[in-house]
Amino acid sequence: MGKRGIDVSKWQGTIDWKKVKDNGVEFAIIREGYGKKSPTQIDKQFKTNYEGAKAAGIPVGVYHYSYADSVEDARLEAEFCLENIRGMQLEYPVCFDIEDKEQLKLNNRQRTDIVKAFCEEIEKAGYYAMFYCNLSWLNNYLLKTELLSKYDLWLAQWNVPSPAINCGIWQNRETGLVIGISGNTDINVSYKDYPAIMKSMGLNGFKSDGFSASQSPAPPAATATEYTTYTVVKGDSLWSIAGKQMGNGTLWERIKNINALTSTVIYPGQVLKIPK
């Protein structure tokens, strides 16, 4: 089914977050800012929206609108975003919004590298990265297979009964009416339990709720018949590997235990045992 959410920015004005919560909204993706570092390019309602949503008990993620036309610019945008969210706890991803018409002057390789550069910086800082675009951009202006193998997609596809491609979050309408917000707002559906991912993996300002090596007994030695192996690639997490290899991301701790990992940090090229 999925959870019902919204995304907002200064254009929604002052929001009554208690009324929004009472209207059944289960999460909010809030615009943090846009472009490279500048005091004028932090969304004017960002901190107010963040504090209001959190006070109302609504889980929060953020998005950054991009003007980047190079990998270097994308990294600078990521640094700006990270500076603005420092000290916050985010239950939903840090999303890179690529849709600006000026970026259409670039080629697919350049645009894809821009998305990857931003997301890489976000992940290196301990946050869960995601990218946002509409279906036309995904199909025509990005190397979608390359991106979808690494990052979750927040897909904008309006007024259809279901998204055309698997995605973590689906923005299905831009003209939603929500009590507590004046005028229209975007409506979204989340298909993943992002709050559980952030808290269990210790991302987005949360500490991992997994057991440390000192809290749990050492796992018994496993024989080769009890496991297969998997080589970590860039963008992997224990959660995503468990989802791909075991069919259920919540089984990530079994991988952690069988490999005697003392944290959730893994590295490209690392070979992991995967329980059968």
Walkthrough of the structure:
Strand 3 (60-65), helix 3 and strand 4 form a beta-alpha-beta unit. The protein starts with a strand and ends with a strand. It has helices spanning 17-22, 46-55, 71-85, 108-124, 135-140, 144-148, 194-201, 238-246, 252-258; strands at 3-8, 27-34, 60-65, 94-97, 129-134, 152-156, 169-176, 185-190, 227-231, 271-275. The protein contains 9 helices and 10 strands. Mean pLDDT is 90; it is low at 210-222. It is of the alpha/beta class. Helix 3 (71-85) runs parallel beside helix 4 (108-124). It folds into 2 domains: 3-201, Glycosidases (TIM Barrel), CATH 3.20.20; 224-275, Roll (Membrane-bound Lytic Murein Transglycosylase D, Chain A), CATH 3.10.350.10. An 8-stranded mixed barrel has the order 1-2-3-4-5-6-7-8. A two-stranded antiparallel sheet has the order 9-10.
The assembly state of the depicted protein chains is single chain
Biggest sheet, spatial arrangement of strands: 1-2-3-4-5-6-7-8
* CATH T-level topology of the largest domain: TIM Barrel
How far apart the termini lie comes to: 29 Å
- Output the radius of gyration: 19 Å
Just name the CATH architecture of the largest domain: Alpha-Beta Barrel
Can you summarize the main beta sheet? 8 strands, mixed, barrel
> What is the N-to-C order of secondary-structure elements (H for helix, E for strand)?
EHEHEHEHEHHEEEHEHHE
* Approximate strand percentage: 15-25%
Shape: globular
List low-pLDDT spans.
210-222
Decide which structural class fits the backbone: alpha/beta
Measured as a percent range, the helix fraction is: 25-40%
Q: Give the integer mean of the pLDDT values.
A: 90
- Our count of helices gives 9
Number of domains: 2
Strands, total number: 10
Kindly report the name of the CATH homologous superfamily of the largest domain: Glycosidases
> Quick one: CATH class of the largest domain?
Alpha Beta
